[in-house]
Design brief:
This protein is an alpha+beta fold. The protein is 72% helix and 9% strand. The chain folds into two domains: 159 residues, no CATH class; 93 residues. It contains seven helices and four strands; from the N terminus they run E-E-H-H-E-E-H-H-H-H-H. It has a four-stranded mixed beta sheet with strand order 1-2-3-4.
């Protein structure tokens, strides 16, 4: 997704871009919040009020994802890993790295930073929601309550040990620290991530057959994304290793042969 999408802003040197597919997610979020979540949370308001609350909730989710990905980017920047920026798309967001982390420790710290940040945002949003409701600002309080729940779920989902989710990267870091090589560690983590993707796809099919068409389709699509992303991430690691080997061979071949004096 590098280079595609609409540039939104720069966040402390990191370019944030919006892929057109995120607009589909935004419409679905506004619709579900305006027709389901907020009417149940705050009955008796007008349809227009629910729509504006849904729009506010969608923007809140967007910035929550940006903050989550910025945490990854900030740790990467600290360890000198080049970052292309942050891209928001239909399945959330991604901090685009120009290279893999140099060590298992760096991988772990980068991966865990996102979920921990989401948990912190959830805690802050929960506190703000309680304060606003106590002050009689029920509408804004409900929006922050939604953001608290969403960031909690965002953090928990990303901790699932399915590569390339954050939990899968934590798993890769643990395997990497034992094996000492990123390639076999990525292969194992990728297989687990691919298996989790297949499981989500199967659950999606079951949900559709039971009549839960919308949730079933989302589960199936997310499963396809996780499965495809896990395989693509492993292929990228293999390509980078191949390039490193090719550069090393070229360097060795360019070295002049030592002359032998009789």
């Amino acid at each position: 997704m590098s280079g595609r999408g609409i540039k939104l802003f720069n966040l402390l040197g990191f370019e944030v871009r919006l892929h057109p597919s995120w607009l589909i997610l935004a419409v679905l979020i506004v619709w579900s919040l305006a027709t389901g979540f907020f009417p149940l949370e705050l009955p008796g308001y007008s349809r227009a009020a629910y729509i504006w609350m849904g729009i506010a909730g969608a923007f809140g989710l967007l910035f929550s994802i940006v903050i989550h990905e910025f945490a990854h980017s900030a740790v990467a920047w600290h360890y000198g890993i080049p970052m292309r920026g942050i891209v928001l798309f239909i399945f959330g967001g991604v901090a685009e790295m120009a290279d893999e982390p140099p060590t298992a420790k760096t991988e772990f710290l980068m991966a865990i930073a996102g979920p921990l940040t989401s948990f912190l945002v959830a805690l802050c949003s929960f506190g703000v929601a309680i304060g606003l409701r106590s002050a009689g600002q029920a509408e804004i309080g409900a929006i922050f309550g939604y953001l608290a729940a969403t960031n909690l779920l965002l953090g928990l989902f990303n901790l699932i040990p399915a590569f390339p989710l954050d939990g899968g990267r934590v798993l890769r870091a643990a395997i990497w620290s034992r094996k000492g090589d990123i390639v076999p560690s990525t292969r194992i983590a990728s297989r687990i991530g691919s298996g989790f993707g297949v499981l989500l796809m199967l659950l999606g099919v079951v949900s559709v057959l039971r009549g839960n068409v919308v949730s079933g389709l989302w589960s199936f699509l997310i499963g396809m994304f996780v499965r495809g992303a896990s395989k693509m991430s492993y292929e990228q690691v293999l390509r980078r290793r191949s390039l490193e080997v090719a550069r090393l061979r070229a360097l060795l071949e360019d070295q002049p042969e030592p002359s032998v004096r009789s």
